[in-house]
Each structure stands twice: as structure tokens, then as C-alpha cells.
Amino acid sequence: MRIRTTPDTRLAFAVGLTVLAFVLATTSLSFVSIDETAVLSVARSLAGHGGLDGDILYWTGPALGVSTVVVGGPDGHVYVVKDILPSLVITPLVWLAARLHISPVRLVLLLPPLLTAFTAILLVRTARRLGLSRRAAMASGLIFGLCSPAWLYAETLFTQPFATLGLVIALWAALRAADTGGWRDALICGAGVGLAGASATPLWSTGTVYALFLLLASRGGRSPAQWFRAVWPLLLAFSISGGVFLGAQGVFNAARFGSPWETGHAELGAIRMSAANLPVGLTGLLFSTPRGLLWYAPFVLLLPFIRGRLPRPARWLIAGIVLIVLGVYSLYGEWFGGLAWGPRFLVPLMPLLALLVAPVADDLSARRPWHSMAIAAVLMLSLLTQAGVALAGYLESESAITGRIREAGATLSPALFDPSSLPLLRSLTALSGGIWSTLWFNADAVDGWLLAGCLIVALTACGTLLQVARGSTGNVLAAPAILSGGLALLMLIRYPVDALALPALSPARDYIRLNAQPGEAVLVQLPVSIFGWIDDSAPERPPDYGVVVEDPLSEPATAYLRATSERHSALWLVSEGTINGDPANGVEHWLAENGCAGPEVWFEGYRVIPYLFPRAMQAGAVAEWQDGMIRLSRAEYALDRRRIILRLNWQVETPPAVPYTVFVHMLNLDGTLIAQHDGQPEAGYRPAMTWQPGETIPDCHALLLPGDLPSGEYRLVAGLYHPANGERLSLTDGGNAAEIARFGMGGE
């Protein structure tokens, strides 16, 4: 069946498909910021174990001094300070990635291009509702999608694409509500504000502008009584839908930090709002070379030359939104948005500014050649600025620039006007240096098939747009839509794993998933491979906590480990670059002192070792060995169908001359070995040669039992042997292994 569409609808979708084609052609489908990882981490927790935590990013605090994305909650978890809506939206994609066995990073990064394309579609429709010509309406969508920083942010998982769509939905619905007086449109307007606010909290400030617009737009020469009857359904509907989002965000805040008003930003120092910041914030966001709107979206240069093209109420509404958003972010101490490209906080304003500028498209005529050439030059400069950064990797220069802005503080430092920070210059420098950020060009190699696919999709979209702009009524939109979907599929097929993923981690992950029991968790100590671990296509896992090597272990880290161990019966440590008994590894030293180490397994360069935390123990037998009169002064054990834990206390009369290894074996009655754990005392932190007379050395070992263990009676024995030759140390009674306990277990 053929779907009937209006010319304006076809034009809007043609513009949206063009924007989508260009974003897909330049995307790298890889994260560039810890902010994106933070959004993904919440979705991982939701898809994996139904949590809201960001525990996998706990390491950012110790590693960076002060985390930029997570804050500790009152329940011992850490939580991401990013707003919840983007994480909620991508959670089904993270779940789907697990079923398809592909990178969740790759899959979720296909969503922002779609959001940006839909924003462009809605913007074109809004332009037509405001009475702009088809040419101007088309220009509004293209200026937003291809001549503003929205292009770059459509390639990321920053929250801006979500917030931008919300503001445009609210704008479109507010204009409809003003025309029709319909409460349903006001309901959609409130939902749009809610979508924006739940993606970027400061955008809740625009709600006052929209509410005032609905209030005044309903006046229309009515008497006060008529006005009240007309306006109250609009304001009620607007408040209800917006309130649903606001209430949900309050519940999310309370779940994280115990208060609906607490977002975590204040603890990070990210919100230092002050009128003293206004001069530098406003100047920086508008004119500075590292962040100035003037340089990153040059099309705004045309704003002073646009007069009377939009209806006055719409102009006032847009102006109010722009001013309040610009004002709020100018008050921030971090007005520059951290490690980002251009005025990140102002990206949601790009469609509104594009709508104001769009009428210049009607001035591009041969009758005013110099005027037309000037307009075309400004728009081309905007296009090249965005295309350059969409193709280039900007982080090479961004880190130093962000550092200089932070050092400047609330002063108009020369760093804010450094010509080397200009975006086009930075992009050209990166591209000429081979620093590209596209999926089809990586490590000096060009993927010819993918590049060809990108070019075909982009050219088809442009051709379709020209046909629709000229009045074609055929079903021409199907081709770019199908090709765009095919291009996305081709990207996932050719690159199912993210660039940071490390296949060597897979065996370690699979081993933990196979052996971990309900109530257990994973400690991830991967300073090099952490992002590869996070980009895991299978979220059904024990909860995971990201830690780093600390020497000495800080008090916050100690409290965090204690809370985590109290929450879980076992913690599976997966690490790289560490060994047993490393004195510089404060995390593992704490685990060895407070938990019971299980068998150590290596997967290439990755090490996995479980630490169990028993809650109740039974007394076992004690024994004495000959060398230095080593005495087992106390033995306790705990067992279930899959675990045995043995806690030992050693004492000596003289320090042993040999660094004995402790063995713990579970045997059946005929002596067959069922499970074992061999290791240096206290997981390597208390070698036998360090023992002193009169000292009690605690030592704990854990055994992992096979799942098909048959029913029967078993023995638990322990002893010591020389690590060089395996010779066991004899007990005073002549044996070489002390029987700690006998017990029956196994079966279903």
C-alpha cells in the first residue's frame, strides 16, 4: 500500500535523510569522552542486573584525583551524575547488542544520528508552520544538521542530541497549541521540555518561557474570563506532562543520592554558578576561539540581517529560550563544558538559531549577486567547519585547550582568544597530520567498500533532496532510507567490535560468568583495558566495580571495598599487570587481609582470582609441622554446594627458612582430588619466611567445586610444600597433610 504524503512532509524527510547520510558517512562509531562511557555504564547496569549504579567507573576518582562523572551515594555505590533519560533510551540497544553479539558502543552510536535526523525533520515542519517558504524551510534543516555543531554531536553519545530533540518537539507543539488552542499540543510541549530537561537538567529553565508563551498566546483579544477558560487547559496539560518527567527525574535523584533535588554535580564542583562568572562565560560562549559560537557556528553572523521573517510571537519565544539557556550556562564555572568540541552546552539552541537564519535562503538570487555570494560564503564556512571536525579527531588539541581554560578561571585570559584554537584551523591540522575520526579510514588504511557505501548513500540522499525540492511526487524517499539502513548494517557487520575491545578479555569474562554464583560481583582492575571491558556485548553478568592500583589504599577506597564486600559473598578480581603479593596494590592487599583467595587463573595477560567473604564458619582440627615448629593454631571452614572456604591461623617458634606454599585439598575417601587451592599465605602478602615468633598469621583459602559433584563423604586437608621442588613438609606425627574436617555433600 502506498502511503500518501504531503509535499512538506516529503521535503522534511528528504532533509532528514540527507542529514542522516552525512552523519553516517563521517561517524567513527567510537566514544571520544568519558561522558559517553558514563551514559553507557548506567545502561549496562540496567540491562545487566537492574541497577542504576555507575560502579564500573569508580576508578575515575582515584585515577584522576577527582572523578568527573561519578559521585558516591549514601548506600555505598557510586552513581553517574549524567541525567537518566539517554541511559534509559539506550538500555534496549545494550540488551539487543548482547543478543546479536556485537559491540554495544557501535550499536548505541547509531541512535544519535537518527535523533538528529528526526530533529531536522521536525524543524522543517516547524518552519513551514511559521510560514517560511519551502526553500527556507529546507535551509533550516540543513543549516542545523550540517552547518552547526549538531553534526559532530550526532556522532557521539553526549546528551545533547536528546536534549535538542526535546526542545524542538516543545517548540513545534507550542506553536501548534497557540494556533489551535488544543490541550493535546500543550501536553506534547510539556513532554518536549521534559525530554530536554531529563537529558540536560539546566534546560528545565526553558519551561518558564514555554509556559509564558502559552499564557500570552491564548490572550488574543479575549475578555479575562474567556482568556482563563482558554488558557487553563493548556497550562494544566503542559504542567502534567512536564511534571511527569520532572517527578521521574526526582525519583532517580532520590534513588541515587537520597534527595530529589540532588544531582551529584555540586559534589564534583561542576556547578559553581555565580554572577561573577557571567562576563567570562558569556564572552567565552559567544566569542572565544576555543568555545565561541561565532567560530563554531559561523552562520550566526547572518542573524543581524534577518528582519521580520518569522511571526513576532515565534521570534519572542525563540529569543526567550536562547537568552535563558545562554544566561544559565554563562553563570557556570565550567561554562566551557569540559573536554568537548565548541560550545557544547549551546548545541540544543542550534535548531532555533537555524530557524531564525533560514530565510536567507530566499535571498540567494542572481539579482543581488554580491549579497548572495556573502550569504553563500558564510554558509559554506559553517559547512566546512563542521565537516572538518566530523572527519578529524579533535582530542589531540582539545586536552591542552581545556586545561588552559580551566587555568584562566573567571578571567578574560588571552587563552580565550588564542588563534590556534580556531576550529577550522584545528581540524585542518588534525587531518593533515593523519588524525582522522571515521570508521572507513583508520590507522592509515581506507576501507574501500565502506567508503563507497558512504558516498553512494550521501549522493543518493542529495539527489533525492533535489528531486523533492523541485516538486517530485514519486516515491523517491525509499531509496535513501533503505540505503541508510543498509549502510548502518554494513558498518556493524564489518566492525562488530569496538576499536578499544580486546578479544583476549573474552575468555576471562566467560570464565567468571561460568563460575560466579548469585550474590557475587566482579572487581575490574584494568588500567589499560578498562574500556574494552566496558564495551562488553553480554550484559548478563555479576555487577562489576572498577578499581585501580592504589599505594597506599585511600580511606575512601577502603570504605568502598568494605561496603562492596558486605554486599556480595565473593568478589572476582580481574586484573592486568599485577601479581600475587604486590605491595603496591592496595586493593588486592585489602582483599587478601579481609577475604579468602581462590584459585588464580591466567588468560594471556589477564589474571582472574576470586576472593570470598564467609559469614559463618565451623571449627576444624589443628596440627603441627616440623620445620621451625610451624603450628596451625586454629582452623575454620565453611562450605556449600559450590564453595569451600578454609581460614587458618599460623604460628612459629622460629622463622621458616623456606617460603613454603600452602595447599588446601578436597578429597573423597579414596584420596581422589576433587578441588584444590595452592598459594602463598595470605594471597602472597605474608610469605612464610616473614613470620615471626609469637605472631599469629591469618591465612584464608577458597576452593571452587565442580557443579556435578556426586553425593558422598569428603575430606578437607591442608599442608605446606617447598615451591621449588614440591616436597611436602612433614607433620610432627609423620604425615604430610593435616585433615581439617570430614563432611558429606554433593548431589542435587
Please tell me how large the radius of gyration is.
Answer: 32 Å
Uncertain runs are none
How much is the average pLDDT?
Answer: 90
Give the tally of β-strands.
19
The count of helical stretches stands at: 26
Describe the global form: elongated
Beta content comes to 5-15%
The N- to C-terminal Cα distance equals: 58 Å
Helix content: 40-55%
- Structural class given helices, strands, pairing? alpha+beta
Q: What's the story with the biggest beta sheet?
A: 6 strands, mixed
Structural account:
- The relative contact order is 0.09.
- The protein is 47% helix and 13% strand.
- Helix 11 packs antiparallel against helix 16.
- It has 26 helices and 19 strands.
- The model has no long low-confidence stretch (mean pLDDT 90).
- Strands 5, 6, 7, 8, 9 and 10 form a 6-stranded mixed β-sheet that branches. Strands 11, 12, 13, 14 and 17 form a 5-stranded antiparallel β-sheet that branches.
- It has 748 residues and is α+β, with helices and mostly antiparallel strands.
